[in-house]
Write a structure and sequence with these properties.
homotetramer; alpha+beta; five-stranded antiparallel β-sheet; four-stranded antiparallel β-sheet
Chain lengths: ~325, ~325, ~325, ~325
């Protein structure tokens, strides 16, 4: 439910307006140097308030390590990390007590649990991803020791692709009290061949699940993705030569197992659901209503999703790297 | 690894040219009428040899139930099912002993395990999906008792969308010794609101993982998928009225939890990797080589993937339905 | 590793002398009233410093709930709880930097991880059980709504069984700078028939694993335990009448599934490993050495293990109760 | 439910009088020589009909490997194995349709599932352990390559301990239409230090769960077990010298992690529940009744439990050995 991974296992907790959000990381290799400075920079990239393109909310989001590190090194025991919540404007959310915001999880949480923490989305808030990003930072540090690096970039916003165009689209949406969607690409370099398990543990399946599990993501592609549907096999197969693969339409994964090429993932991100324009909805009693979502929201969530998607890819990869260690041992 | 699901758990086994392929289903609700006739029809839909558009291989694929059913009813104990392998032309595969087929898992399995059953792809063969489809048939029978139905259809092949055009594209590729890709849509109707778990157990994340875990699938969309990247929030949010949602761009899932609308999934399927045209590759010693894949292959795998994708969606849904039973109990 | 349970899942974290110890509880039913006052009393029972029979260390161990509760009720999201560490006498532990204490995990942790937090046992300290007890208190509150109650008692210490004898044994050991072992019984009343899963998910197997996973426990019995080895079947079988079972040698579990009778568990607890008497050991370089363990240790850990064992039994039972909800749904 | 293990994962299936019993082993290291002759000898040891001390039923129990082995070597893919059922005397079991046998799972299965395969105990029959033993044989073959060996022996029957006395007790019980319990010891030699995970993944916890999950086992001890309850710490702690531990009261496990000493486990086995003497019971309608269990039953199950207990210990150990491979990789 709130746990991700098998070998490197993270459990996140916390609501948007509760006391704290955080994560427990279980299975981190022992003996790795680690302190808060390894984690804070990635968190800062997902933080709001950093430019005119994202939410102006001011959240310091200072991470604290509570366990699992001794004399500056990981010990193999669980690493608990926490960020205290602050900077909330609870009056922004009073309306949410009775109204379901279109595009949000308000309605479905109420249906599922019969109760929900309505303040700022509660558990379904993007603040939950702080735990993922903090855990992802640890994963990335370990992966770097194996030569593996993960990075992401915005590909398009509202169909536009240049940096200037993207900025203009976001600001236009912001000024209109609206929001825009976009796409992003996440790439892992340096992965050895052999990561991933056949059948139900395929690396691409794990990546797809990890990406689609990020709020606002509605589509995932590996390699050339939907473009392959319009191709001949003779175009799409990646030929092999003694110097390696001659193309990478597959995105670095064959039969669910990494090929040694770059792993390439593309995601579709929907426009932020919270918009200032009036929308039709119902209240918790089922009556028709209108809602104008207040608060300081992101006109486009793509920039802030990048570090989350990087973290999720890193978490999938570290799990596979540790899993594969068993095979190396087996084959010895 | 070879197990899928938490509450309704399936474990598949078997290689393309081994003694048998099969599946063990654990967690099936007790007391449900079940015999082989509930399973065979879905298996027959994925079988080759049924039309000029698919592989002409003749495989009867008769399923047998070995356990878990007593006097015509499920008992709650594991349901093991098996299909004996037959109809193999092993001489078709002799070349695969030393050559890696482009687009296949031959290279990556060898990298991962240092050994592989090269006959017809071994474990990475599409025959592995027999176990998934057999298990999916049981899941569908149970879901039907809850009013939930799953069905799939071909949307496009090689960019064309009409039935006649699709057939023409497939036959043209077949005649050219080539293959073509396509897209398919899988829909579940009748799902109650509340299925799926927040954060890492999201219903759309589980579906994305399940779909991307089918061989040849390279992209997954929920609802409008990649189209949302070009929209404004005011266009994309599904408004709610006292009579229900007024649109379904979200594809029936909000915040990872089903909304009660139809669940809509689209997948991109790559062109079959096995083609009769010569391709560049290497042998197991790393030397340059050329390969022309022999055997009776599908020029387009989309038609035969439909029942597999239906099965996977049914498996995700039954898992969520049984999981949600715990909440119903909790809320009582 | 540090996670226990399937449906009601707890993940503990923290070292004896780190910043904090705590637990994340995932899968708690929503809508249950909960605050710190539901948890603190059970924690207070495991706390040291409460009588002359246990360690005189003063630890307030005040629990704080960080998430998962809104307006006094559980929401179905993870409940994170934390106790800040205090009251440490780190100079008591300086010697542990280089010496392995006999009977403790010092040697094996070093072997496993190549690094260890030696302060007070670090992760292997009994303080880790704070998280278990806090989670167990939530489980007990839920189980009470189903009519299920868990309670434990000391059966014997150093072979003696009366309250006065037990106290005398403990004080004598304390005065001698030594420690003593004992046995305890944990009973669950009110369990419905049908809890537990056959084969590998048996209720007695889960209980045995849960109990043996408590530090210092070296033996577990269900029902009459080792006494059954000396019996005839005609003596040991529990006859059934229309008014129910006529005896309970089985301890409330048949074939791994609860019978509706009281569930009875007995555990053997070894004498506390930390003793003031000199013992032979080695240092981290493998040289012979002698150690006299300093600090304020329990001469007998049985009294303080009782609430931990109660918590573990409650955790096993709530997991089974929630699991069984799926069957109730299935059978509907 | 019917799956055991994390890294080396087995799923058993089959009922006593169904078509077959079997197991799927997932996660077996690739490249290991394997055929049916590696498995059959251990199965033969658990087979009935081999002496006057066990059930005279004749079951050939010939194992067949269906997948996962290619050209005589494991490939890393699932190994499915099956034994066809034969030799049943179904008329022996007709009475079981309506009566619950005391000491058996008949009553609790009916309570749990509302349906049961009553023929010979169905899924709760000892025949289910064929799958465990077959999987255990593979585990033992792998463990042998690491220098680890597992073996078991009868310690006592009905309180007697010499071979002649034990035989006499069993025959006396058999002649009286009764049954007797006993104890057995299982030992693993050659285990490296460092196996097992702290807190909830402790090696002794896993062993206790594995042993208590064998039908008829009612008690489990690690090392000196219940005897430690009567000791002083100064007696019970195992001192360490530069030449290693000076005693092994702990049974080879400290803090849940193997110490490198022999791992010693003792189990209590109840007298076989099936006896020829009349017993009080109820029928499925709740009416008082008397039952005399017919069929060819074991007067003492201890001899036939030994290979099952060995298999379970081997399964726990291989799981820990493969898990530890991740740490070796981490520490590199």
């Amino acid at each position: 439910m709130n746990t991700f991974g098998t070998n490197f296992r993270i459990t996140t907790f916390g609501e948007s307006h509760g006391a704290a959000v955080g994560v427990v990381v279980d299975g981190c290799p022992p003996g790795m140097a680690l302190d808060e400075n390894d984690i804070q920079p990635l968190l800062d990239r997902r933080r709001p308030g950093t430019s005119s393109l994202v939410s102006p909310r001011q959240e310091r989001d200072r991470i604290g390590i509570l366990s699992g590190v001794f004399e500056g090194k990981t010990t193999g025991t669980p690493i608990a990390m926490m960020v205290k919540n602050e900077g909330a404007h609870p009056h922004d959310y009073e309306e949410l007590r009775t109204l379901f915001r279109p595009g949000h999880a308000d309605f479905t949480y109420q249906q599922k649990y019969g109760i929900r923490d309505y303040r700022g989305g509660g558990r379904s808030s993007g603040r939950e991803t702080i735990g993922r990003v903090a855990a992802g930072a640890i994963a990335m540090k370990y992966l770097a020791t194996k030569g593996i690096a993960v990075s992401g970039r915005i590909v398009s916003v509202h169909g536009r692709t240049g940096a200037g165009e993207i900025e203009a689209e976001i600001l236009a949406a912001k000024n209109a009290g609206d929001s825009v969607g976009g796409t992003a690409e996440i790439v892992a370099t340096g992965c050895p061949a052999g990561l991933g398990d056949p059948v139900f543990g395929k690396l691409d399946a794990a990546i797809a699940g990890a990406m689609m599990g990020i709020g606002a993501v509605k589509g995932v592609e590996i390699g050339d993705g939907f473009a392959v549907a319009g191709r001949f096999g003779s175009e799409n197969n990646d030929p092999i030569s003694k110097d390696g693969f001659l193309s990478n339409h597959a995105g670095g994964i064959l039969g669910g197992i990494s090929s040694g090429q770059d792993i390439i993932v593309c995601i579709a991100v929907k426009p932020t659901s919270s918009i200032a324009k009036p929308q039709r909805t119902v209240d918790i009693h089922g009556n028709d209503a209108e809602i104008t979502v207040k608060g300081r929201h992101d006109p486009c969530i793509v920039p802030r999703i990048i570090p989350v998607a990087e973290a999720m890819l890193a978490l999938v990869l570290i799990d596979a790297v540790l899993e594969q260690a068993k095979y190396r041992s087996k084959g010895e």
